[in-house]
């Protein structure tokens, strides 16, 4: 059975050219970038060259890029690093953030911080006016994601950034799902901190970065050496960073093409469902093109995912499947309420490298067949 991978929002396969760059670097760039001998200096140059690619991709300067182990560490560094440096105990976030943000905020809440969790509308979008209303004299941080990983909704980050730019409040955005899909310019967005992960755009797992605007207060969260300008201790993963930069370079070269391609795949999928007579509604709006989250009445998500998997289709829901149970998607709960049927019958398909119209046609047809079969049970 040839599997059809439709879970690129969870993680993406590495691009062949990235695999090649990664493999070559592992065999040749083995020095420690902090060493002063020529082998170390070669690694330092490779690291500096890669950092420049990363910085240019978001219109930042090289020193503003802190290499991390991925998006979770970047989010944690942004939140805990800000809290450790600033006076005040109030943080504003949204109810639909990734758990790397929500769980970090929950930890601070247990330590005495006051967290405001902003609601979203039925499309999964935060209102910038709600951010304004939530601001207080002791607000130190606003952290709102750029693009939602479950329903794909794009948040009004530039509007919020404009609102906050003349204040001393730090503004962070989790751009992990949006990076490589949306054009990102930190000057236009007016963000102080921005998180990114390589494995979402066909790079390796275990590497990412946090953008830190020059002058933004941030305390290191790791104790050790003086790497990353004393902001993130630990010897840098040079081959991973080189591969990350290669993935970014490829992504930057074909952003417009990917946007059109993924939008086309999304429309093909929906058209097939409609032609097959499947009743469905799309969750979210003003979305990134690579995410399609649909609610299909009459199905149970757990059995639906199992049947899709048996049919050779890798997809996911907004729910965390554990032993015999499914936790409700916090994103869908925030959008529709705790008793909404969408929580029990929504599935996410996400698109990426290697997919063709034929793949999508086949996947949508199998989705329709499974939907009809399960609806009769």
UniProtKB/TrEMBL annotation:
* Catalytic activity, as annotated: (sulfur carrier)-H + L-cysteine = (sulfur carrier)-SH + L-alanine
Q: Which cofactor does it need?
A: pyridoxal 5'-phosphate
Under Gene3D superfamilies, the record lists: 1.10.260.50, Aspartate Aminotransferase, domain 1 (3.90.1150.10), Type I PLP-dependent aspartate aminotransferase-like (Major domain) (3.40.640.10)
* Pfam families associated with the record: Aminotran_5
InterPro entries membership: Aminotrans_V_dom (IPR000192), Aminotrans_V_PyrdxlP_BS (IPR020578), Cysteine_dSase (IPR016454), PyrdxlP-dep_Trfase (IPR015424), PyrdxlP-dep_Trfase_major (IPR015421), PyrdxlP-dep_Trfase_small (IPR015422)
Q: What is its EC number?
A: 2.8.1.7
Q: Does the keyword Transferase apply?
A: yes
Task: Provide the alphabetized UniProt keywords.
Answer: Iron, Iron-sulfur, Metal-binding, Pyridoxal phosphate, Transferase
Where does the Aminotransferase class V domain start and stop, copy by copy? 4-362
Q: Which family does it belong to?
A: Belongs to the class-V pyridoxal-phosphate-dependent aminotransferase family. NifS/IscS subfamily.
Please give the name of this protein: cysteine desulfurase
The organism of origin for this protein: Planococcus shixiaomingii
